[in-house]
Write a structure and sequence with these properties.
Elements: H1 5-15, H2 22-34, H3 38-49, E1 53-55, H4 57-62, E2 73-76, H5 82-98, E3 101-105, H6 125-138, E4 140-141, E5 145-146, E6 149-154, H7 160-165, E7 175-181, H8 183-191, E8 194-198, E9 204-209, H9 210-224, E10 228-231, H10 232-237, E11 266-270, E12 275-276, E13 279-280, H11 282-302, H12 308-317, E14 321-325, H13 327-334, H14 341-360, H15 377-383, E15 397-401, E16 404-408, H16 426-437, E17 447-450, H17 456-468, E18 473-478, E19 486-488
Parallel strand pairs: 2-3, 3-6, 6-7, 7-10, 11-14, 17-18
Antiparallel strand pairs: 1-11, 4-5, 8-9, 10-18, 12-13, 15-16, 15-19
Helix pairs in contact: 1-15, 2-3, 5-6, 8-9, 9-17, 11-14, 14-16
Length: 513
């Protein structure tokens, strides 16, 4: 199947090295990930050039390069001293240079005006986050894109109220922001209750109502989409090393929560390729899942890493995240509405095969994760399919990329079974994500799209529903609340508004997948 015009454009603008052909990108990537097996190399090339399976973008960028890192994003630690802070900044710069993104939980940093051991007062966690924010403007990832950066703060940190408001003040615009909450917080936010605000140095500062934090979170997200919520207990439920090793940090698009220094090893299967005459070929899908698992396992082995700590963590934890894209296209081909019980039933059917096939690949070899669903903004362009498990954004839409704008539409979207992101209710966005989460040991990157007239109360209800249904995190986007990576241009979904603040939300390419 020939590559689409959008895929050819993106390959030439972003992935081709020098004057190489677009097909050569897949050839050198297949050669690298096959690790010397010529038959598997050909199989992998066929899967990639046909848009059936693709590894994350850094593998396409860096395969064949000397000391090329093939991984998309990294989990970095930080400690409450200057040496650690600036070591993390240096590590982030090296990762950006190789084309990766970073997630950092800044909760270990003491609050503003806390005393310092040598005298004086701390400038605070948010102040140091501003330094990281500035680095993103300076270092362009792999010479291709600006850095992707997730900043996290725990709900009981002394600067939590300022953290929630920081983007409303026009600061930290290069970050995606998330708040880590636990079950106790959510119960108190819903039913009433107080929480203690604790200094990272270990002492109690004050007591506040959980509801006050929760309502401010919802208001800030209503205004501009940040911060998102992360659910600590649900994340660590799938952490095989808990409680000895706690996962408190996720990658920029929040689908990967892993121990410090770990890297995301991601690839996605275009499941719309397995539909023929209104039937889904589960046997072929299972075989491609096994091929994807092999490619990602090899990726961990053959990749160079920017830091020795990352190499050690990857040798120990061996995480892979084989994911899904083209879900909405698959449903349309099968004649299934996105927001229907039939959709949930199909997720259970494919999820069972997906889970079994990943578990049966090297069943005795430990993997921190095997299944993760990433946003696949760039990969879905290369594969000519819908992104991740998102509904079709619109029947015609423009995607704003760092290398230009492209218009996306497909003949498939003339079908009566198309349900656009704005036609699907927020409740069904969450339901579909939660149904997939039952089959995923990692996480899922998924935006809950909400109409412009959605209320703060609507956003609170989405948060509560997401927590109750067992999601690991939730991100909402209210139409018109910030600059958009995706802009609908059909007559049924025409909307534009000027919002000056830049966006790093994972609605297109910002997670580099």
């Amino acid at each position: 199947m020939p590559l689409s015009q959008n895929a050819l454009y993106l390959l030439k603008q972003r992935y081709c090295i020098g004057d190489e052909s677009p097909e050569s990108v897949f050839k050198r990537t297949a050669q690298k990930l096959a690790d010397g097996d010529e038959r598997f190399e050909q199989d992998l090339y066929d899967l990639m050039v046909n848009g059936t399976f693709l590894p994350n973008s850094p593998a396409l960028f860096n395969s064949g390069r000397a000391n090329g890192c093939l991984h998309a994003c990294f989990i970095l630690p930080i400690k409450d001293d200057l040496a650690s802070i600036f070591y993390t900044i240096t590590a982030m710069g090296k990762i950006f240079k190789d084309g990766g993104g970073c997630g950092i939980n800044f909760s270990p940093l003491r609050e503003k005006d806390a005393p310092l051991s040598g005298g004086g007062k701390s400038s605070g966690a948010i102040s140091f986050m501003s330094v990281f924010d500035n680095i993103v403007d300076v270092v362009k990832q792999g010479g291709k894109r600006r850095g992707a950066l997730m900043g996290i703060l725990n709900y009981n940190h002394p600067e939590i109220f300022n953290f929630i408001k920081v983007k409303l003040e026009g600061r930290l615009q290069n970050f995606n922001l998330s708040i880590m909450v636990d079950n106790s917080f959510m119960e108190k936010a819903i039913n009433g209750g107080d929480i203690d605000i604790i200094s990272p140095q270990g002492y109690k500062i004050t007591t506040v109502k959980a509801k006050d934090i929760f309502e401010l979170m919802a208001f800030a997200s209503w205004c501009n989409g940040d911060p998102a919520l992360l659910f600590f207990d649900r994340i660590n439920k799938d952490n095989p090393y808990y409680p000895e090793i706690v996962v408190d940090t996720v990658n920029p698009c929040s689908e990967v929560g892993m121990p410090h220094w770990s890297a995301c090893c991601l690839g996605s299967i275009n499941i719309s390729k397995f539909v023929w005459k209104n039937n889904f070929n589960f046997e072929r899908f299972s075989n491609v899942v096994k091929a994807g698992m092999r490619a990602l396992s090899n990726m961990n082995s053959v990749s160079a890493y920017p830091l020795t700590e990352v190499k050690e963590a990857m040798d120990k934890y061996n995480p892979v995240g084989l994911g899904i894209m083209g879900f909405a296209d698959c449903l349309i081909k099968l004649g299934i509405y996105y927001d229907s019980q039939e959709c949930l039933d199909f997720i259970n059917q494919i999820g069972a095969v997906y889970q079994e096939a990943t578990l049966n690949f090297n069943p005795h070899k430990p993997y921190f994760y095997r299944r993760i669903i990433a946003p696949t903004g760039s990969l879905s362009i290369l594969a000519d399919c819908s992104s991740g498990i998102e509904p079709v954004y619109d029947t015609v839409f423009v995607r704003n990329l760092t290398v230009g704008k492209i218009e996306e539409t497909r003949d498939l979207y003339k079908s009566k079974y198309v349900r656009t992101a704005h036609e699907v209710s927020p409740e069904w966005h969450v339901k579909v994500t939660a149904q997939w989460q039952q089959w995923i040991d990692g996480g899922i990157s998924k935006t809950v799209n909400m109409p412009y007239n959605a209320s703060v109360e609507d956003i609170k209800n989405v948060y509560i529903q997401a927590w109750k249904l067992g999601l690991k995190g939730v991100t909402v986007y209210r139409d018109g609340s910030r600059n958009q990576v995706l802009v609908g241009v059909s007559q049924t979904n025409k909307f534009s508004i000027d919002v000056p603040a830049p966006s790093t939300k994972c609605e297109g390419e910002s997670c580099y997948l």
